[in-house]
Amino acid sequence: MQSTLINLGIIISYILLFVSILTALVFPLMQTISNFKAAKGGLIGVGVVLVIFIVSYAVSPADTGVFYDRFGISPTLSKLIGGGLVATYLFFIAAAISIIYASMTKFFR
Predict the structure, then answer these.
(1) Contact at 8 Å (CB) between 48 and 74?
(2) How far is 94 from 100, CA to CA, in rounded Å?
């Protein structure tokens, strides 16, 4: 009896998880389509982030060596890791510049 109730609870949890994921994906998409002009700024931001990730991946090297072989890191995975690190550095620099810019404009007003 208890295992039946536990299984039923798990199945209901999976169904609710699926419904919540579907809702979290569909409603923002519907809002974007219905009011594209208001969503344009957010879409431009997402596009800029994607471009930064693509450029970071393109400029990162596909290193190999003893360290990489020891941990089973392929050249493709090495390039992906390097791209993630480069993107992190670029986002950190952009955040620091925006903080400094905001502080300076507030100071000189």
Answers:
(1) no
(2) 10
Whole-number pLDDT of residue 44: 93
Average pLDDT of 6-10? 92
Contacts for 42 with CB less than 8 Å, ≥ 6 apart: 32
- Whole-number average pLDDT of the chain: 92
Q: Calculate helix-pair angle for 75-107, 36-59, nearest 10 degrees.
A: 130
| Closest C-alpha among 85, 63, 87, 84 to residue 74 | 63
Q: Could you tell me if 29 and 63 lie in one domain?
A: no
Whether residues 48 and 7 fall in one domain: no
Q: CA 21, 27, 48, 50: dihedral to nearest 10 degrees?
A: 30
Pair (61, 105) in one structural domain: yes
Q: Report the domain count for the chain.
A: 2
Domain that holds residue 57: 36-109
